[in-house]
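In the design runs reported in the main text, the only information available to the sequence generator was the tokenized backbone. The following block is the verbatim input for one such run; it is reproduced so that readers can re-run the procedure and compare outputs position by position.
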């Protein structure tokens, strides 16, 4: 994978062992994904706080506190998705009725463990739909690093930003991400035409429709016609299902989503690989 001179210096340890370790992760990740280079993040990061994907590249609390003491911060606006290791309830924990989530001491310990991340600049939104309350949203074309099933299609399809499922400490700290899949123009073009022959009305309708499209499309990029203009909650439901029934990270709704003013624009003038009626 091609690295700039600055990236090579980080990989060689000139910026310190922690930065080196983060770059080692990005290079290993990028090579596994087939990326030819890294790209600078000019949008935002959305990550699962306290979590590292690969044990070989985990940073300890002490290492993160070392960065904090040096005055270092995340390079880009960074928001907390839901905590997963361990998971805890941020709002309304007192009434959730489930242990240990309803135990205030458990919640306090979880928040304490994430304090260094907050001091690095992470906004403690602690929600899988944190993009609904984020104080900063990326503009169309900006490169991001997000996580969460509903969030990835939201970034790509709804906002027109560019993100794979790779929001993490390393991408936030270095402000870089491997340039592959949704970061590249050619991978964002619609490949499958999906027509909805049923009138979608409820959140559950969109949820089930999204699951069916995901199962049919897998990794393809669908253009969806006949689905009306979904509400915010309907989009969230559909996005989650698209990216769990399959792995649809990007889709187009002609006349609605920013990269598809028309059906022809969604396909960039090409013919669909296949047409599906649901």
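Verbatim output:
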């Amino acid at each position: 994978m091609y690295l700039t001179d600055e990236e090579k210096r980080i990989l060689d340890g000139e910026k310190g062992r922690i930065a080196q370790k983060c770059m080692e992760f990005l290079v290993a990740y990028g090579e596994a994904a087939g990326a030819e280079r890294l790209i600078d993040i000019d949008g935002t990061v959305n990550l699962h706080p306290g979590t590292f994907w690969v044990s070989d590249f985990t940073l300890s609390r002490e290492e993160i506190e070392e960065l904090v003491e040096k005055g270092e911060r995340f390079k880009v606006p960074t928001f907390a998705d839901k905590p997963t290791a361990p998971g805890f309830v941020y709002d309304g924990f007192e009434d959730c009725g489930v242990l240990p989530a309803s135990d205030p001491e458990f919640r306090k310990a979880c928040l304490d463990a994430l304090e260094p991340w907050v001091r690095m600049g992470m906004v403690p939104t602690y929600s899988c739909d944190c993009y609904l309350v984020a104080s900063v949203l990326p503009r169309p074309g900006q490169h991001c690093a997000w996580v969460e099933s509903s969030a990835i299609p939201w970034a790509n399809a709804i906002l027109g930003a560019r993100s794979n499922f790779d929001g993490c400490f390393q991408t936030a700290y270095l402000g870089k991400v491997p340039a592959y899949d949704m970061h590249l123009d050619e991978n964002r073009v619609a490949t499958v035409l999906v027509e909805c022959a049923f009138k979608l009305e409820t959140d559950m309708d969109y949820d089930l429709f999204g699951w069916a499209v995901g199962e049919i499309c897998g990794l393809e990029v669908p253009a969806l016609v006949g689905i009306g203009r979904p509400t915010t909650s309907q989009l969230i439901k559909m996005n989650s299902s698209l990216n769990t029934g399959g792995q649809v990270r990007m889709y187009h709704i002609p006349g609605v989503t920013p990269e598809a003013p028309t059906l022809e624009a969604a396909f960039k003038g090409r013919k669909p690989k296949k047409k599906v009626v649901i």
